[in-house]
Amino acid sequence: MSHLPRQELRRGQIGLIRFVLAGTANNALVQAVGPLFLLSLGAAPFHLGILATFSQLDKIARLGGVQLLGRGFGKTRLMFWGRLLSIPATVLLVLVAIITHDHGHLAIWLAVAVIALRAALQQTGNAAWWPLIQDVTAGAGLGQFLTRMRVQQRLLELALPLAIGIYLADTPSPARFAPLFGGSILVLLLGAMCIRGVAELPSAHAEGSLTARMRQTLAMPAVARFCRYQLLRALFHSACFPFWVIALTERGLPVSQFVWMSSVLAGGQIVSLWFWGRVVDRHGYRPALLPCLSGLCMLSAAWFVLPTGGLGLLLWVGAVYLLWGILEAGVQMGQSRAMVDAVPTDLQAEGFAVIIFASAIGGGAGGLLGGFLFSAASTYRVAGLDGDILYLAIVQAGFCLPLLAGLNLGAPPTGNHHEKNASQAA
Q1: Residue 389: how many other CB atoms lie within 10 Å
Q2: pLDDT tens readout for residues 386-395
Q3: Which CATH number does 6-201+210-424 carry?
């Protein structure tokens, strides 16, 4: 396998980190507040479930990016245009926030459609994201790079939600979101500029149709195992996490404090990322992924002691988000190591795309089913417990299934383990 020169590796890593920081700001300004924007329009849990479904199914747009990569379209060029073309959709989202005066269903569905459209355009470009990471970390520590990137990313996530929460206050109107959406236009431009200077290795020549190449990739045992894991993880995550906002705000948590919890979650990731990065570089994915998935399962018991309102609720939410951040950091670091190891470099774009496709299917199903089931569960009480809380506890305990799927994600393909000695060290 050929490598980029050391100077290009370093420059590429810096460019990708800057790109992902712009992407983090973009997500904070639109994706993270999307459910709150829908609630300000009068949305129901069903609408939030649909938004969560689209946020996962949008990843299928990466297949279009893979097709372009197979035809010689450059990786950085693809990501550049993915960001640039999503700007008109963002302008439309600003107009929806400004013009909407009533809380009708038309406004809600229009907002969902526009958010989904801009995400799909960005996901088309994101088909080159993991191939670029594989290019700029060849011969270098993947865990070290991911740690540097994610620490800076989480530091930004620590600060932005605090400012956004203060700005939105407790009961924001739809028009209050317009400046946030407008700010995302600027960071989209910034991200497009940052990615242009990243060097890349040439993509392997695509032979046969995209469908045939995807099947060839999926036939590889390591890739197939990781797809099963990713499908299950996305399924349970999307069936649970997007509905926290409803359960918590209905029990007295102000909107501003809910937004601040993104900073608490980021803080949990920051304090643990260096540790998890060293773990995966020295011992592989298992010591990070498996204990953290187990912790997420056990954390489901916390829903049974959820207080209502006041300082008790704030302390509960803060503690749960902090622990979730620590555990999620280990999960992300472990699964990133396993995924990069599983994908062969000669089917780079196809390998990552089929994994993202599995994630999209699982996440889309989880969001859709979760919206129906959460709405239905909210009308019941079981053994003195509110149905929505019981639902969240049960679904979160379901992380035991991706835990089982992650027990043996398999050895990396021959010649594709950049840090074979490091990751197998005792």
Answers
A1: 18
A2: 899 999 999 9
A3: 1.20.1250.20
